[in-house]
Specification:
51% of the residues lie in helices and 7% in strands. It is α/β, with parallel strands linked by helices. Strands 2-1-3-4 form a 4-stranded parallel beta sheet, sandwiched between helices. Helix 21 links the parallel strand 7 and strand 8. The N and C termini lie far apart (53 Å).
Length: 453
């Protein structure tokens, strides 16, 4: 037996179709096995709130050991997990191939899968994560939707808190009046025939947050690729399913994996690179989908072909060089490396991308923002999300750079809100960016009509 973390971790496929996966008694037995190992180690005490909750339950029990904790109390531990994968990727010494075979995030996913099967996920929670339905409706009435979800609108946010359990203080993503798909179709940038990567082709997986909420990220990516000489197409078969995965609706996520993989298969066969615009979606395609559908050829092919956008631009620059005319930025950047980007295990690509900019002044933060997708905006979680993310917000305030960026748009917004809460002068949250937007700002003359700030 090798002591853990001395080799690359191995992740096993999820047996989500087996009846045993949803057996409450067998789930409890596995949770007690894993929690007892965690209790004896405690290396993850400073990650998400799951581990402090577990250790407090044990320490405050009648025996001071796991046998003194009631099974019903495990729910608090499960609820606090954001599936960020940082314990598995960076902390746990007992992940496979260690014989203890410990995969804490996927155990939490299994527990949520059991809850989903038993109908314990509230109706409002299920409706909240229907991103395509919600996005399609909200973009048609974007000004009204944004007015209703603004934290300044105390009436509607109070109602939303009461009806859907969304904390009235949590900033929510605004909706765009035009989706990324419609904007890309209406105004595709001209591909530079003299670009250093001329001849390469890429298909962009739009992702729900870029398509409905932040299409500027997608347009910046298209513009940068055009300057590299890369011919790009945009597709969006639907949400990657990360919000549904967080709720334990594994079958739905597997359906989305197959649908997206089938839609992208013709592009891969024609030599296109697949590029995802947010790290959560990149992680789903690269890692989670193959574990749900390990025998689906299209899913496996997609997992090998997909790049995160920052990873892809760094790869183009390494292989082909940079486009002519790359200038500097008019200020420094604090860049946050999102947890799901770190879980991709490809290196700090956001920082590498920004350091391609001549004279770039970059401060890197490599710590959890605390947001956790739909988890961090819920009543009961928002204060914990702010607590977990406070060190990141504090570092960003101290860095005092002109720009704040994160690969994860939701994490960026949460960091900005944390920074505003720390500000002594009552300043509003700073505007945040995706790294590709800042790279586009340095690369694209304003005369070309770039909409990047």
């Amino acid at each position: 037996m090798r002591e853990g973390s001395l080799g690359a971790p191995t992740r096993h496929a999820l047996a989500w179709r087996d009846a045993d996966f949803y057996d409450p008694a067998k789930l409890e037995a596995e949770m007690r096995r894993v929690f007892d190992i965690c209790h004896g180690c405690r290396r993850c005490f400073n990650l998400c709130d799951s581990f402090p909750r577990l250790f407090d339950l044990i320490d405050q029990s009648s025996t001071g050991e796991l046998d003194g904790v009631a099974t019903k109390d495990f729910k608090a531990v499960v609820d606090a997990c954001t599936l960020c994968d940082m314990c598995f990727m960076t902390k746990c010494p007992y992940v496979p191939p260690h014989e203890f075979n410990l995969d804490f995030p996927h155990l939490m996913l299994r527990a949520r899968g059991v809850s989903w099967k038993q109908g314990e996920v509230p109706f409002t929670d299920r409706e909240l994560v229907r991103t395509d339905r919600n996005g399609s409706l909200a973009t048609m009435v974007a000004p009204l939707a944004n007015w209703a979800t603004s934290t300044h609108n105390t009436l509607t946010r109070s109602l939303l808190e009461r009806l859907a359990g969304v904390d009235r203080r949590a900033h929510l993503p605004e909706y765009a009046g035009k989706t990324f798909l419609s904007r890309a179709k209406a105004a595709p940038p001209a591909v530079d025939p003299a670009g250093p990567a001329t001849g390469r082709k890429a298909v962009l997986f739009a992702t729900c947050v870029v398509n409905y909420n932040q299409p500027d990220i997608g347009m910046a990516a298209l513009q940068v690729l055009a300057r590299f000489g890369v011919a790009a197409e945009v597709v969006y078969p639907g949400c990657c399913g990360m919000p549904q995965l967080e709720q334990g609706n594994v079958a739905d996520v597997a359906d989305r994996a197959r649908t997206t993989a089938q839609a992208l298969a013709p592009f891969i066969e024609q030599g296109y690179d697949v590029v995802s615009l947010t790290p959560s979606c990149s992680l789903m395609a690269k890692s989670e989908w193959p574990l749900l559908e390990p025998e689906d050829a299209d899913v496996l092919r997609l997992s090998r072909a997909v790049f995160d956008i920052d990873e892809y631009i760094v790869e183009l620059a390494r292989k082909h060089g940079l486009p002519a005319g790359l200038g500097g930025l008019d200020g420094g950047v604090t860049v946050h490396l999102a947890c799901h980007a770190r879980a991709l295990n490809v290196g700090p690509k956001a920082a590498e991308l920004l350091r391609l900019i001549p004279g770039a002044d970059i401060a890197v933060i490599e710590r959890c923002s605390g947001h956790g997708g739909s988890w961090g905006v819920k009543v009961g979680n928002f204060d914990v999300a702010l607590k977990v993310g406070k060190p990141v917000a504090r570092q960003a305030v101290r860095a005092a750079k002109r720009y704040v960026a994160s690969e994860c748009p939701l994490a960026a917004q949460h960091i900005a809100q944390g920074m505003a809460l720390l500000a002594e002068d009552g300043a509003p949250p700073p505007r945040t960016h995706h790294p590709i937007e800042l790279f586009a700002r340095a690369l694209l003359p304003r005369a070309e009509g770039s909409e990047t700030p």
